[in-house]
Amino acid sequence: MRGQLPSLFDNVNQRLLAPARQHLAERGVNGGVVAIVDDLDKIPQRALGDAQKTTNHEQLFLHEGRLLRSLQCDALYTIPIELAYSHAQNELVNTFGSRILSLPVMALRDQHGKPEPAALEALRSIYQRRVSEANAAGVAVFADEALLSDVLASTGGHVRSLCIAMRELLDQVDAMPISADIVERVFHRLARDMRRGLEPGDREVLSAVAADGQACDEPAFFRLLRNGYLLAYQVDESDWYAPHPWLGPVGEL
User: Fold this and answer.
1) Whole-angstrom Cα distance, residue 203 to residue 209?
2) Residues 6+ apart with CB under 8 A from 116
3) DSSP alpha helices (H): ranges in the chain?
4) pLDDT digits over 173-202, tens only?
């Protein structure tokens, strides 16, 4: 496959991007094309066994960086967490000419547990837009507003978790509104399923992160972060982390 990549990129440049730019120009659209190459962050890390002890991540994003830059448009590549947090950070910046951008989760509470009302309202707005798109804006989805607030808080500010929670809740009802009993039952199931995926040693990593909010060098940290057991937040340029609320109190894991 690697030997076919240059011709694949050439075909994309010639048969897709060039006509796309011409199409935009003919319609008087100012601007270019942006290619988003997603899911590369899900590539499992493995050693290649060469003398330099190169990983497959380094091979793709650093050694093949010139090829990845050969698309004749602005391109966004998702990269594995392990690489973004590694010694290769500076080399990645030099290779691609841009710093690594991270997408933090909305912190509904700050690192010290203080509520962040603006973040909660932003998440509520996302929920309301999804309800509106489903033509249910006038429907009482929950028995009361407190239940909705509980559901929003349970996500830790993670939008995908909100979508998962709503899908699970809606699967449990034949008619609105969703009751407190249904919410409690679904919360219990989500917590059970998430805890079931923990591996030996994960609880210690989760406890350490819960205590100080900092990243650690344990390989499990990256796996937990990638799989949503840990959530990444950002204040200005400072990163901090916390276990997903569905895990419940870390001391009870």
Assistant:
1) 10
2) 106, 107, 108, 109, 110
3) 5-11, 18-26, 56-58, 65-68, 81-84, 89-96, 117-133, 145-154, 159-171, 180-196, 202-212, 219-226
4) 999 999 999 999 999 999 999 999 999 999
